[in-house]
Amino acid sequence: MYPPISISAEEVNYLVYRYLLESGFRHSVFAFENESQIVRKLDEYRALEVRPGQLITLLHKALQVIQVEMHMDDDGSERDCEATLSLLNPHNCIIPSEATKRARRKAAAAAAEADREATPGADGATGKKARGAKTQRKGRGRGKNAADPQSEDQGDMMDVDGPTQTTLDDVIVQVQVNGTTDAITTSTDPVITLQSSNERYYVSAWNPIDDHLLASGSLGSVVGLWNVPSDNGALSDATLIAHESDEPNNEVTCIAWSPNGEYLATGTKDAKVRVFTKKGEPVLSFAHPPPGIGELPHNPVLVLSFNPASKLLASGSASGTVIVWNLDDNVESYSSSAHTQSIMAFDWYDTTTLASGSVDATVRLTDVVKGTQTVLSGHTKDVNDVKWDPYKRWLATCSDDATIRIWTRDRAEPVVVLRGHERPVLTIDWNPKPPGNVPQLASVSLDSTIRVWDATTGNCIYTMSCYVLNHCVLTYSPDGRYLACGSDDQYLYVWTSNGHLVKTFYGHGDILDLRYNRSGDRLAVCFGTSRLAILPISSPAAVGAGGAALPPS
């Protein structure tokens, strides 16, 4: 028996209030909150952490139920219909032709078969629930091996079925457009879906020079190279690089492009680092040392980063080791075990100075040529991310201690400590082109808030809501106008740089990774399933008012 349903007028009023607030109707908000007296219940409802766009989400789900009711025959069979179902317009069914029916059934069967084959067993979780195990969070857990072990060092290229073009609703649904006509929009180009029956995509990386070349990482031992068109042109077949090894656990854990766009580095769970050309041809490989007694059974490579000259490659592992490899001479140029626990993030200051953050709660600035280090102490728990601002003036670090700290190159103490989050801060991102050239830093936390900070004063400028269970990602667009955020509640939000919510999408899986290409007209979205979506984005010169951000607190 189903549980009873309860709908109160106060709950409806709160959803309407939130819709008006998020849509930027500020005068209407003032009138409505006083006439409905919802202001008396605001503290109670805010504690429930209602997601942005919840009213639209519920209406969308209600339409789905109505859609089923209207198109279900008495015998339980579904009646095909091509007409759009909306909230207000009367619905008149349009029966598709037999050819259209056959094409749809064939496509649905192929997609179902692909997802079924890609579903792992009990050992196939992505690791998002294991927040305590940092190596699982970086390595995305366990997955199905995609190649038989034959070679320890090199990867083999193999062609697979190419990507497909789909409608938006197939992989990600737009559920809200907030009160503006000139804000960010999806273009008329179709959403592109990259699909493989044997893989589960969790990370991607656009080539920094070639806007059409996308690399994808999966829970298997395969990295994909995809040629993505800029318009409705034909999609080329993809090339997958299999990482073969004598070790059973050789899943790909991280990928990184060199700044010159010529090399792609991959790290795997079996402690190997491999470098390929942009065409997928193997260049070199090396390995991190095995873990010590009493440590993790494996030493996964968790972080990779090329220096700005594309000549040095830094790699960090779960045991805390850092190895820097010289690509020109194919030799190890630096190694260190100064960090005592997993490396979580890298960022280069210049061609020789590397910032690293670790679960050991320290940040280190290392000159990999001289071998000298500066320890930045202050965080009391795991350091999750480190990032230099676009002009290399400040280094931002975030931690499980719920703080963000701003450092300079020549000081071992933070110049500013950003406080306001109530739970661990997962990741951060600098606005590449902030309004008024005032340094802006965005952060997201397990307290389900995104905060945008003035990094010079430490003041919180905007606070936005984004429901987070265990994992969240965020990224600014290259022009700095938009901030995208996705989490394991399957929602993707896009805000303007001044905190206005302009787009809300709902994906078919947890959103594990978001990447804009260099031009900012494509956004790659990884769901941890057999499909990776590429959203076509149009960004006009002027941005409308959009929805309203919450006031900073």
From TrEMBL:
Read off the Pfam families from this record. Answer: LisH, WD40
**Any one cellular-component term (Gene Ontology):** histone deacetylase complex
Q: Which Gene3D superfamilies match?
A: 1.20.960.30, YVTN repeat-like/Quinoprotein amine dehydrogenase (2.130.10.10)
- What InterPro entries does UniProt report for this protein, alphabetically? Ebi-like, LisH, WD40/YVTN_repeat-like_dom_sf, WD40_PAC1, WD40_repeat_CS, WD40_repeat_dom_sf, WD40_rpt
GO molecular function (one): transcription corepressor activity
Q: Where is this region: Disordered?
A: 105-164
Q: Where in the cell is it found?
A: Nucleus
On the tree of life, the source organism's domain of life is Eukaryota
Cited PROSITE patterns: LISH (PS50896), WD_REPEATS_1 (PS00678), WD_REPEATS_2 (PS50082), WD_REPEATS_REGION (PS50294)
Q: WD repeat positions in this chain? A: 245-276, 301-335, 376-417, 418-463, 474-495
Q: Does the keyword Repeat apply?
A: yes
Gene Ontology annotations of biological process type: regulation of transcription by RNA polymerase II
Q: Does the keyword Repeat apply?
A: yes
- Chief subcellular location equals nucleus
Q: Which UniProt keywords are listed?
A: Nucleus, Repeat, WD repeat
Q: Where is composition skewed (Acidic residues) in this entry?
A: 150-159
Origin organism of this chain? Answer: Allomyces macrogynus (strain ATCC 38327) (Allomyces javanicus var. macrogynus)
CDD domains registered for this protein in UniProt? WD40
Question: Could you tell me what this protein is called?
Answer: LisH domain-containing protein
